[in-house]
Amino acid sequence: MPRKFPKWMSVSRSPDGTLLISVPPEKYHEAASVLRGMGFRRLLTVSAVDRPDEGKIEVYFLLYDAEAREYAKASTKVGRESPSLPSLSDLWPNAHMHERETWEMFGVRFEGAELKPLFLEGWEGPPPFRKDFNWREYVKEAYGLG
């Protein structure tokens, strides 16, 4: 049976059949809840892509519906300055680990999640997965090399 999506979801399909869903930031958590209700019960990941040319960070989550054997990628874009979205950990407990990593590497805050370092304990530099992070310069400054 075909799925019915809310009008505020922009839905298409990738060549491999994955549902590609784009939502406004204020609908991010609601989109996750709607998709869970449609049978996408397995959260595979939460991550981000830095898009400095747009002044945005694209935050996405990947889901799987085992019964329909279907994947979905839902995404939104937030500003690079103080990016923030609600946590999905109330819907999928495993979201917490992925959100911690996304916060640590891209600087995206997830409201309602306990965000503490996962990999970079003691790190005082900028988010290292942002495209404007120059690791060579950081190493020179941080370790007095060069």
Spell out the blueprint of helices and strands.
Layout: E1 10-13, E2 19-22, H1 28-37, E3 42-51, E4 56-65, E5 70-79, E6 84-86, H2 95-106, E7 109-111, H3 135-143
In round numbers, the mean pLDDT is: 94
Helical coverage, percent range: 10-25%
Q: Ends: how far apart?
A: 62 Å
Q: Which superfamily, in CATH terms, is the homologous superfamily?
A: NADH:ubiquinone oxidoreductase Nqo5 subunit
Tally of contiguous helical segments: 3
Which fold name fills CATH's third level, the topology?
Answer: Beta Polymerase, domain 2
Helix/strand/pairing class, anyone? Answer: alpha/beta
Q: Per CATH, which architecture? A: 2-Layer Sandwich
- Outline: elongated
Specify Rg, calculated over alpha carbons.
17 Å
Molecular structure report:
The protein is of the alpha/beta class. It has a single domain, classed as Beta Polymerase, domain 2. It contains 3 helices and 7 strands; from the N terminus they run ββαββββαβα. The chain has helices spanning 28-37, 95-106, 135-143, and strands spanning 10-13, 19-22, 42-51, 56-65, 70-79, 84-86, 109-111. The chain has a 5-stranded mixed β-sheet. A two-stranded parallel sheet has the order 6-7. A hairpin with a 4-residue loop joins strand 3 and strand 4 (56-65). The chain is elongated, with a radius of gyration of 17 Å. The model has no long low-confidence stretch (mean pLDDT 94).
